[in-house]
């Protein structure tokens, strides 16, 4: 069981790769089309940046109504969240999937265009599709 407020993923220089458009395009040309789509569909946009999460945190899934992870449930500040890391919003039971609201992520226009170019769907676009549905 994971208690409410538990830090699940710490945003720092070891837990993520930040991409510029040029850096991401350089990585994509070395991949097969399937690998490129897989990478693009597992990148996240936050604060205007495109991020690759390193480690298990890249396997969070989307839920607009039932998210159980996100910014600290008691806000940011001393002994609470930092505004970018991921925390348990409530107690999470064993075998329960970790869910976040992708619709809350940033839109980065060059990244969205790159996803269209490769036939991929960004996490943000997937999250917003569910909000509109």
From TrEMBL:
All residue ranges annotated as the SET domain in the record: 1-103
Species per Swiss-Prot/TrEMBL record: Strombidinopsis acuminata
CDD domains: SET (cd08161)
Protein's name in the database: SET domain-containing protein
Region (Disordered): 65-86
One Pfam family from the record: SET
